[in-house]
């Protein structure tokens, strides 16, 4: 079977972003960009299934600017077989991302789509679930373990309070949580090899999807700053401050 | 503008997250009804009828809803959506799982994790681990919204709405519940605790984590939390992770011990009223948000602190 892994190009998780002074957005000029960390976990999981002989092909797909080719190349260097870029310079909201991914699924007919649970830029946590709805597939979100078996796939999920295991028939959607695996690093030879792997560049129009954003961002602001605290010299002083100054205990 | 508020519960009692989302639902104006979907959750429905400002409670009782599987529950919500202008749920793991499915079926964009209702179509929500806030206006006729519960006060339980059964015969052959491992226990729930004690990688083992933090948490009546590094290392269960991609908490007192204060961790706790940090590194970023910082070795300071609380 084929596995499709959507990967998003986002600001690297180590970067502390800055809000533009005029409130029009976040300053992305000269900021380091990387593959969304949850998507690295998704690529890793797909590769593991391939290495276990349970999948034949891993396809990475990204929706974004031309530079998202770099993100796809990262996925290819990890071991994915081919890439698809759906090129657009517009912001694409999760609903339209899901519609585009549905069109790719219709064309490629994968049995599994493994996404990240959340993109660390928009923190939306929606796309996988939306794609599940549009396709009428079952979903195993926030995956902690994934087990393919004869009937489909069992996904153990990280939920409030602990873990929950669901059984899904195939085809199905999985979204990754942090503990699913540790993504591999791409070796230099594999990075070189990845340059020759196939990467198709398409446009939203090729899939008959029109990008129509529903949300208008009126303003982007910084969070309120906490006032600077103090260092205390001892446990006794801490307890005294908590009792008598903060009234916290 | 009428709103359908989706209740978070475990079939036995109403979770406090519902009351906080109720405050957001009330701010939309136009009143709200509450949906309780579950199995044998009659007590929950009765409790939900007391939510201040609630109209009627729609009670959908079906074995298919026992574990809140996204596929049948989303179909149920969509079948009820016609009568409502907005669908609102707390951003708990259940509704993060299910509500985007509802939104896509209704062909609308979900607005995730709102921290403020500006007007009926305009909301504030965090992006980039809470390092920026966006004010967004939706052009969708129907709004589908999840609520960051720490940003809203809990609604009172002094109302007297009515409960109405809703028929539902969900057909779901694509997913089924297999098993669950839920912690339970006596400790207060992390999301609604007044005091949270969190530990990081510095504890070095699960044994030390428990041995040092449990007595402290007991003294303070606190919930326990953890950094991602502590969870990854197996010192603490997954659902104790506080942060951008874990739980967001805002207790009266948050004590971060042996936690460096990465932005992803700060995202989940920096709205706490009072923050205490204990760390050997006086330059650890956690001190930039701490009201009271104590520089030193947790292995001596934590037992000392526990003893000092007698
Ligand atoms: C996609 C993504 C999502 C993430 N989501 C989250 C999240 O939701 N929540 C989260 O917490 N993290 C998250 N992280 C991880 C985050 O970036 C940090 O790696 C993590 O928070 C570090 O955990 P820590 O502070 O326990 O460990 P470290 O950064 O290793 O810090 C340990 C601290 O302990 C101190 N220390 C050492 N010995 C002692 C001692 N004896 N006494 C006292 N102090 C001592 C050290 O000075 C240090 O400051 C995420 C990362 C990614 C990439
Ligand atoms: N523009 C995109 N291109 C490819 N995949 C995406 C894109 N946006 C979101 N995704 C996928 O959807 C997941 C969840 O994103 P979100 O719903 O935006 O939090 C990500 O981890 C990706 O796997």
UniProtKB/TrEMBL annotation, chain A:
Any one GO MF annotation of this record: electron transfer activity
Annotated Electron transfer flavoprotein alpha/beta-subunit N-terminal domain residues: 23-211
UniProt keyword annotations, A-Z: Electron transport, Transport
InterPro entries linked to this entry: ET-Flavoprotein_bsu_CS, ETF_a/b_N, ETF_b, ETF_beta_N, Rossmann-like_a/b/a_fold
Domain of life from the UniProt record: Bacteria
CDD domains (UniProt xref): ETF_beta
GO biological process: carboxylic acid catabolic process
Cofactor(s) the record lists: AMP
Keyword field contains Electron transport: yes
Assembly information from the UniProt record: Heterodimer of an alpha and a beta subunit.
UniProt function note: The electron transfer flavoprotein serves as a specific electron acceptor for other dehydrogenases. It transfers the electrons to the main respiratory chain via ETF-ubiquinone oxidoreductase (ETF dehydrogenase).
Family as reported in the entry's similarity comment: Belongs to the ETF beta-subunit/FixA family.
Name this protein carries in UniProt: Electron transfer flavoprotein subunit beta
Species the sequence originates in: Maritalea mobilis
UniProtKB/TrEMBL annotation, chain B:
InterPro entries cross-referenced by the UniProt entry: DHS-like_NAD/FAD-binding_dom, ETF_a/b_N, ETF_a/FixB, ETF_alpha_N, ETF_asu_C, ETF_asu_C_CS, Rossmann-like_a/b/a_fold
Cofactor binding annotation: Binds 1 FAD per dimer.
Disulfide bond is among the record's keywords: no
Swiss-Prot/TrEMBL keywords: Electron transport, FAD, Flavoprotein, Transport
Pfam families: ETF, ETF_alpha
Coiled-coil region(s): none
GO terms classed as biological process: fatty acid beta-oxidation using acyl-CoA dehydrogenase
Claim: Electron transport is one of the keywords in the record: yes
SUPFAM superfamilies named in the record: Adenine nucleotide alpha hydrolases-like (SSF52402), DHS-like NAD/FAD-binding domain (SSF52467)
Cofactors, names only: FAD
Residues where FAD binds: 201, 227-228, 241-245, 258-265, 279
UniProt GO MF annotations: electron transfer activity; flavin adenine dinucleotide binding
Residue span(s) of domain Electron transfer flavoprotein alpha/beta-subunit N-terminal: 3-181
Annotated family: Belongs to the ETF alpha-subunit/FixB family.
Subunit structure: Heterodimer of an alpha and a beta subunit.
Entry function: The electron transfer flavoprotein serves as a specific electron acceptor for other dehydrogenases. It transfers the electrons to the main respiratory chain via ETF-ubiquinone oxidoreductase (ETF dehydrogenase).
Protein name: Electron transfer flavoprotein subunit alpha
Protein source organism: Maritalea mobilis
């Amino acid at each position: 079977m084929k596995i499709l892994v959507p990967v998003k190009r986002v600001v690297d998780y180590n970067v502390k972003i800055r809000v533009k002074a005029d409130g029009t957005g976040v300053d992305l000029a000269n900021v380091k960009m990387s593959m969304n960390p949850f998507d690295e976990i998704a690529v890793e999981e797909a590769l593991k299934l391939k290495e276990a002989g349970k999948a034949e092909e891993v396809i990475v797909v990204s929706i974004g600017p031309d530079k998202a080719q770099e993100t796809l190349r990262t996925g290819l260097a990890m071991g994915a077989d081919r890439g698809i870029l759906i090129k657009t310079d517009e912001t694409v909201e999760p609903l339209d991302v899901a519609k585009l991914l549905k069109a790719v699924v219709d064309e490629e007919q994968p049995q599994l789509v493994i996404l990240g649970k959340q993109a660390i830029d928009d923190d939306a946590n929606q796309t996988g679930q939306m794609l599940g709805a549009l396709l009428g597939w079952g979903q195993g979100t926030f995956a902690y373990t994934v087990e393919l078996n004869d009937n489909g796939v069992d996904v153990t999920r990280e939920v409030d309070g602990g873990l929950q295991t669901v059984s899904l028939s195939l085809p199905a959607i999985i979204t990754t949580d942090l503990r699913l695996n540790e993504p591999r690093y791409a070796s230099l030879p594999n990075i070189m090899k990845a340059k020759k792997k196939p990467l198709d560049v398409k446009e939203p129009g090729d899939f008959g999807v029109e990008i129509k954003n529903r949300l208008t961002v009126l303003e982007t602001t910084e969070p309120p700053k906490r006032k600077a605290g103090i260092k205390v010299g001892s446990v006794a002083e801490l307890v005294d401050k908590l009792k008598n100054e903060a009234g916290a205990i | 503008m009428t709103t359908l508020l989706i209740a978070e519960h475990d079939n036995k009692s109403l979770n406090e997250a519902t009351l906080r989302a109720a405050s957001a639902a009330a701010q939309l104006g136009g009143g709200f009804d509450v949906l309780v979907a579950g199995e044998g959750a009659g007590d929950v429905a009765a409790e939900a009828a007391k939510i201040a400002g609630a109209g009627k409670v729609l009670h959908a009782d079906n074995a298919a809803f026992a574990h809140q599987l996204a596929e049948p529950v989303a179909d149920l919500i969509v079948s009820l959506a016609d009568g409502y202008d907005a669908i609102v749920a707390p951003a708990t793991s259940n509704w993060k799982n299910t509500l985007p499915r509802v939104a896509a079926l209704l062909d609308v964009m979900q607005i995730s994790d709102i921290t403020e209702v500006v007007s009926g179509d305009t909301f504030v929500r965090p992006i980039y681990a809470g390092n920026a806030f966006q004010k967004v206006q939706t052009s969708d006729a129907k709004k589908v919204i999840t609520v960051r519960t720490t940003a809203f006060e809990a609604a009172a339980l002094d109302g007297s709405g009515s409960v109405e059964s809703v028929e539902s015969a969900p057909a779901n052959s694509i997913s089924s519940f297999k098993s669950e491992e839920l912690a339970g226990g006596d400790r207060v729930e992390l999301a609604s605790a007044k005091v949270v004690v969190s530990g990081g990688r510095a504890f070095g083992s699960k044994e030390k984590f428990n041995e040092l933090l449990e007595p402290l948490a007991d003294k303070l009546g606190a919930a326990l939390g953890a950094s991602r590094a502590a969870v990854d290392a197996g010192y603490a269960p997954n659902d104790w992770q506080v942060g951008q991609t874990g739980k967001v908490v805002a207790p009266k007192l948050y004590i971060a011990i042996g936690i460096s204060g990465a932005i992803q961790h700060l995202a989940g706790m920096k709205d706490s009223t009072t923050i205490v940090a204990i760390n050997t590194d006086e330059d650890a970023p956690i001190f930039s948000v701490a009201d009271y910082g104590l520089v030193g070795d947790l292995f001596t300071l934590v037992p000392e602190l526990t003893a000092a609380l007698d």
